[in-house]
Amino acid sequence: MKHVRINNANIEPVFFAFPDNKVLEDIIRTVATGEPEYDFTAPDGFGHHFWVVSDPDMINTITEEFAKIPYLYIADGHHRSAAAALVGNEKAKLNPNHRGDEEYNYFLAVAFPASHLKIIDYNRVVRDLNGLSDAEFLERLEKNFVVIDKGTETYRPEALHNFALYLEGRWYSLTARPGTYDDNDPIGVLDVTISSNLILRDIIGITDLRSDKRIDFVGGIRGLEELKRRVDSGEMAFALALFPVSMEQLMNIADTGNIMPPKTTWFEPKLRSGLVIHDLE
Question: Which residues pair with 137 in a beta bridge?
Fold first, then answer.
């Protein structure tokens, strides 16, 4: 909020997804055949290609199509949305001639069709076994999971409710047993909920993912090798890799009025901050 207030601008867009729309898809394809305004590869190796839509008829069509879409889904930027709204309200109260169409009533966003987005796994690394030995930890897991030793070759989760555990140089497949989750509960059916409740809370004693210093999170874009490295270094006791959440699951959670648990999704692509700036004046 201070960042928005002091800069008097939105520097980084809120990241939205919306259900696929054929009219908008056709416009995207048409515009993307033209010459981009910006076209560069950033120092991190990601390419950015940015086109400006300036045709009035096309702008009207885009506006009309978005007016038909009941909701946009925040993929990344909940805090930026809230900060923009709070600063906008501040400015409205300070403006005796407030009309409702000033720039501070809007904030910067990028909206992607859902099919253009990829949700990558968001994995966990944990510092200790809560006083348990490796054997005791694996034995405790057997209550709610089918545990299979996969050896030293990297194992990636193969489906929903299947997890990859890395412990003492070995990979294990953990598959949640039937009855340990509720398919009709949009939050309870999530793998992040299953692992948080049945492993991190019940066995390791971690109840707050946001504040507990015994746990850290690794975006799947860094690969499972990063999980292995952090355990092999001795920094962490074990790593847990999750199967990615689907866009359908995310939209279902929002549509049912629920809130996605913390550290659930890692979205790509992300736009570079500062590429576009929205001046609140």
Answer: none
**pLDDT attached to residue 179:** 93
Give the amino acid at 263.
Answer: K
Closest CA to 74 of 42, 103, 107: 107
Length of the chain, in residues = 281
> Quick one: pLDDT at residue 36?
97
Lowest average pLDDT, out of 41-45, 168-172, 235-239, goes to 41-45
Is-contact 113 20, C-beta < 8 A?
yes
Of the candidates 54, 12, 24, the one whose C-alpha atom is nearest the C-alpha of residue 37 is: 54
The model scores a pTM over 0.85: no
End-to-end CA distance of the chain: 16
Q: Write out the two tokens for 204.
A: 């390791």
Triad 30, 23, 259: Cα angle to 5° = 115
With the CA atoms of 223, 214, 177 and 147 taken in that order, what torsion angle do they form, in degrees rounded to the nearest 10? 70
**Within 13 Å and on the Cβ side, how many CA atoms surround 167?**
22
Cβ atoms 155, 123 nearer than 8 A: no
Picking from 18, 16, 115, 118, the residue whose alpha carbon sits closest to that of residue 74 is 16
How far apart CA 152 and CA 90 sit, in angstroms, is: 57
User: Helices in the chain by DSSP H: which ranges?
Assistant: 2-7, 22-31, 56-67, 78-94, 134-141, 191-195, 224-232, 247-255
Identify any residues that bridge with 147 across adjacent strands, giving them in sequence order.
Answer: 174
In terms of DSSP bridges, do strands 14-18 and 109-113 run parallel, antiparallel, or are they unpaired?
parallel
Instruction: Compute the distance between CA of residue 162 and CA of residue 247 in angstroms, rounded to an integer.
Output: 18
